[in-house]
Design a protein that fits this description.
The complex is a heterotrimer. Helices cover 41% and strands 14% of the residues of chain A. Chain A is of the alpha/beta class. In chain A, the strands form three sheets. Chain A has a five-stranded mixed beta sheet. A three-stranded antiparallel beta sheet of chain A has the order 3-10-4. In chain A, helix 7 links the parallel strand 6 and strand 7 (191-194). Chain A is globular. By secondary structure, chain C is mainly α. In chain C, helix 2 (20-52) packs parallel to helix 5, helix 2 (20-52) runs antiparallel to helix 7 (134-164) and helix 7 packs antiparallel against helix 9. Classes of the chains: A alpha/beta, B mainly alpha, C mainly alpha. Chains in contact: A-B, A-C, B-C. At the B-C interface, helix 4, helix 5, helix 7, helix 8 and helix 9 of B face helix 3, helix 4, helix 7, helix 8 and helix 9 of C.
Amino acid sequence: MKLIRIAAAGVLAALALAGCAGNPMASSGAGASGESIVVGSANFPESELLADIYAEALKAKGVAVTTKLNIASRETYVPALKSGEINLIPEYTGNFAKYLNKDADVADEAKALAALRAALPDTLVALEPAKAQDKDAVVVTAATASKYSLTSIADLAPVAGQLVLGGPPEWPTRANGVPGLASVYGVTFKEFKPLDVAGPLSVQALKNDQVQATNLFTTDPSIKANGFVVLDDPKNLFGAQNVIPVITKAKASDTVKGALNAVSAKLDTDTLAGLVTKVVVDKKDASAVASEWLKAQGLA
Amino acid sequence: MTWFLDHLAQVGGLLVTHAYLAVVPLVVGLALAVPLGWLATRFPRLYTPLITASGLLYTIPSLALFVLMPLVLGLGILNPLNVIVALTLYTVALLVRTVADGLSSVPEQVRQAATAMGIGPVRRFVTVELPLAVPVIAAGLRVAAVSNVSIVSVAALIGIAQLGSLFTDGFARDFLDPIVVGIVACIVLALILDLAIVALARAVTPWLRGGRAG
Amino acid sequence: MNLILAYLTDPAHWQGSGGIPARVLEHLIYTLVTLLVAAAIGVPLGLWVGHTGRGRWAVVNLVNGMRSVPTLGLLFVAVLVLGPRIRGDLAFVVPSILVLVVLAVPPILAGAYAGVDAVDPLARDAAKAMGMSSREVLFGVELPCALPLLFGGLRSAALQVVATATIAAAVSVGGLGRLLIDGQAVRDYGQMAAGAVLVAALALAVDLVFALVQRVAISPGLVPARRRPIDRKNPTPANPVA
């Protein structure tokens, strides 16, 4: 570590001498001054799509926007949001509230929204949520569901000891990930296998029986395509997950708020799932799907 | 192919960023490696520690270096400087040895002849030793250039957009087209950099162009 | 520094299937399998090219070309294409090892080829004059003389594979890369830094083992020749980490 620190400091000094500090890529820092808003996204297609929708909607209202998509998990982009490296990100009420306060009550939509607004730091503001929800879910194959007669997460309790659970690498520490399954449902799996964020690895691993249950998102078109079974969540572990724009307060002018709230007003779960399908299944560009939809809604 | 044609502008933009992220470390790394390599040849006692330290740096996985850089430098996590500094470290690590070997490949007679002609040590280094070491240094630089292009793409895992973003995007959607286009673009970029270094090395070593072509 | 120590000294991190010993073992297995496969391809091919002088141009360009293939992209392609065709836990492991093999073949091939190519023509001629067959020249003279450079290629491949095998964690494969990817997912700097340190230590340990084997395997008569000047056109392959 010390070696890296010394060497890195030397390199940085050399870069400063070479005048590279004023490089074109640092221009994203320009977002800190003036009107420009930096839109970020998490590392899964729906988040990128929503970020594109926000960005295009803002552009249509004449707001200067840059995007920094596919950053990583919440654990990474939230510090960037707090520090002002990004100013706007599409979020989900329940999960973000739980991230900020692991004891937050997110059982229904109103509670989740209130919990999120209460837990947000002063510099950030959550605008109006959309009707659209995309929840985490525990998903199994049809074969596994019938073998153990599973319809709800609670049914896993007696058999989970023989099964492997898959999910994103951050799941073992997320309040509504592995720990939540244990504390709320008493479900403890034999093993957790870190996959991707509800992407192709998760789907493949489930099909392939490398894992017998995995975390997918409820809007994921591959659930239907593969006949996977989404286990019910009667105790509301995953809570309400409305899509919501979270933005740096200083950037939330009336124009900006207006544009983003108008998006939320038009976005319901079926619409969102349909748009995600266009990106993930039809392989269309998220930005193209975003502008097409905004135009159809008269928002761009 | 159609995907590529439909996304020319996007791929072009990512290619330019990718080239920038790969080339700046190359130039800065070379500028740092020359004095370090000189130290290693001038003071043989420094050779082993310098080479060992640079070898150690090279065993650190790039993903780890990218992610830890913000902590070390105190920059924001999305600042591309993190990637540039990390790659500069790799470049220096690779080139110190090459520069040292290149400098020590300069025949002793040449050095003595230059001294006998009354050329001072600094001028001798710049006008005699360094130019004669160019072929060896250029060979190292080519390896560094090609490896930088590959390593830059890993930065897509930490949200820095460049050609590697096509990999993560394609992977998340189970879509090969962007990944393949990204790979080809990386190879093309590596090839261009490689040819540029060869051409540059040839340009600064006119005396080698006679009978030893190819 | 304290973060690393805190992570490494926590006994919980040394137990079970996700513990450090298990991760190190996985990492070593991937590395070993990769090197064996890569050597099985690279060594014979390199020896053959060096011995016959055929396909030299192709080898040099192939080696440089393969170096420029970005590992992360190739890994994603391999997993998307091969993953669904392989059953069980090997679905992600096999594509990952394949990609590492692609990474490891060039330095090994270059080392074997350069080793044979650099054999003193006098030694070769002397062997022929003694009535050795082409095969005997290759295995009795050229191969032993090529060992120093061949080992150089193997060592640089090993370093590269140990460092790059971490990337495979991005596609759910085990090994020390898990500490990096899982650490990144939850922003646990201690875990990531500990992972980096362990990878570096493992790389050094593997290199040390190679150095010892090399000392035993190489004829003492060849050792002084090890520090030969660098061939300008084919420098000893350095190791790009991905």
